[in-house]
Design brief:
2 copies of one chain form a homodimer. Helices cover 41% and strands 12% of the residues of chain A. Chain A has 12 helices and 6 strands. Chain A has a 6-stranded parallel β-sheet, sandwiched between helices. In chain A, helix 1 packs across helix 12 and helix 5 packs across helix 6. The longest helix of chain A is centred in the last third of the chain and has 16 residues. The radius of gyration of chain A is 17 Å and the shape is globular. The model of chain A has no long low-confidence stretch (mean pLDDT 96). At the A-B interface, helix 2, helix 7 and helix 10 of A face helix 2, helix 7 and helix 10 of B. The structure holds adenosine-5'-triphosphate (ATP) (2 copies) and magnesium ion (2 copies). The site of one magnesium ion has 5 residues of chain B, from helix 1. The site of one magnesium ion (MG) has 5 residues of chain B, from helix 1.
């Protein structure tokens, strides 16, 4: 059965979407049938695939709020390898619509249930908040990846997310393993980045991936043409880092 | 009379707090009596001053929800020059507490009213969302600065903020001038950054500051010791950029 992996951090601009895009492509390259779910009303993962969120006939919103909708109608193929369920601003209505529904935190889990038979990995790109959308992703998840930028001010907000994860685990998803932390936008030439990375490793030990994603403009460029880094600059160290990460994720979730 | 300047962008990690900290220090250096207001429950501006948000006796929260609280009790002096009203997680309760209050969008405007007689500039560091806190800051503001990172995916979310500003202006703050855009984390060595900067200037013309803040690890390091870049590395090009920005802001708001 396939694994749902939520990519979450309520801090904005830490590399959630970039992780979903490139880890998805790398898992596909390893032969794993992979699905990406854009779960951010801003639709950034959808934009990163070269699509216009406002011109889509169906999105994750349709399947999320309406259990009778055939989710396969919202799945798009991509030249990057992994399939995509896109999102747009409609999704922001879901938080209000579901607020008083029974079991409102479990809707995404239900939505993705049948897809776990068709995909080895389903990566959910979370919005930068801890509202009902992110909670739904954490409840549906078999594992959680937290991208963290190696800068002093960015590393500080972790406590809120970890406390939320504990509560989700205790009440709604007891099987959830400890989250894994992915250091991103690492600037190896600076002492500051190295010191923060060291602090992250001292604090979280083996929960931190060996793979570190370096700061590179190439990751900001790739999405302009709707490409993953594996397609945009396949032989680069940056593409290699995501291949490395994909292998670590497979080992962690013991998928062989 | 002093001017309230909101520093807002619902996207996270674009340099709102860094702008408040360093523009505040630079305005003070020019002889302008300046106050910084941390209006983010994460308390990042408070942390950037070397303070522990959890050990404060009073914060902006006390004055914001309680009109009888003497706001001067919450003002702290700082070695960086500009005074500070700190924030902590208590502030996140305010959004719920004020939700059904009459005139809930005008609370901050009332809170800051008397301070406009004592300060030339009051800079409000907004949280990364468009909830009641940011709306309060936009209603209280005489001007708005929007930091934008010169990366393709980061530049895309502007429409939502600009639409919100239009609605605030139409219903609650008719005197609000067009916002000014501050390009941040600019990497002059990359074509990508230059292309996005060009797109920003083509789209917004004279609304974009001449000053551009470059990507530098020094801006991530300075807050560790609770310092602005003017104190941490006064002779640097980065400190100079904020001095430049302070002059532009003074001219824009015709304060002489
Ligand atoms: N390692 C990296 N080096 C340089 N730029 C990067 C890197 N990773 C991501 N970026 C760029 O940083 C910006 C933020 O990344 P991304 O959109 O993935 O973050 P996010 O956490 O999904 O943001 P949001 O919280 O807004 O959804 C984007 O412009 C992206 O292209
Ligand atoms: N020009 C710059 N170059 C490099 N790093 C920067 C620059 N400006 C800010 N930073 C760093 O980037 C991170 C985000 O900046 P900052 O906290 O100011 O953004 P923000 O918009 O206030 O974030 P949030 O939305 O979380 O409140 C911080 O670690 C900061 O030190
Ligand atoms: Mg994202
Ligand atoms: Mg901030």
């Amino acid at each position: 059965k396939g694994k749902v992996v939520a990519i979450a951090n309520q801090n904005g601009g830490v590399g959630k979407t970039t992780t979903a895009m490139n880890l998805g492509a790398a898992l596909h390259e390893l032969g794993e049938n992979t699905l990406l779910v854009d779960f951010d009303p801003q639709g950034t993962l959808t934009i990163a695939h070269g699509l216009d969120p406002d011109s889509l006939s169906s999105t994750i919103y349709n399947a999320f709020v309406n259990p009778d909708f055939d989710i396969r109608e919202a799945i798009l193929c991509s030249e990057n390898g992994a399939d995509l369920i896109p999102a747009n601003i409609d999704l922001s209505a879901a938080e209000v619509e579901l607020l008083s529904e029974l079991g409102r935190e479990t809707y995404l889990k239900e939505t993705l249930k049948t897809l776990k038979d068709h995909y080895n990995f389903i990566l959910v790109d979370c919005p930068p908040s801890l509202g009902l959308l992110t909670i739904n992703a954490l409840v549906a998840a078999d594992a959680v990846i937290i991208p963290v930028v190696t800068q002093y001010l960015r590393f500080r907000g972790m406590k809120l997310l970890l406390d939320t994860l504990e509560r989700v685990k205790a009440r709604l998803n007891p099987g959830l393993p400890p989250p894994r932390i992915l250091p991103t936008m690492f600037q190896s030439r600076t002492i500051h980045s190295r010191e923060v990375l060291e602090e992250i490793r001292n604090t979280f030990g083996s929960q931190v991936f060996q793979t570190v994603i370096r700061h590179t403009v190439r990751l900001a460029e790739a999405p302009i043409g709707g490409k993953s880094i594996l397609k945009f600059d396949s032989a680069s160290a940056h593409a290699e880092a995501y291949r490395q990460l994909a292998k670590e994720v497979k080992t962690w979730l013991s998928v062989n």
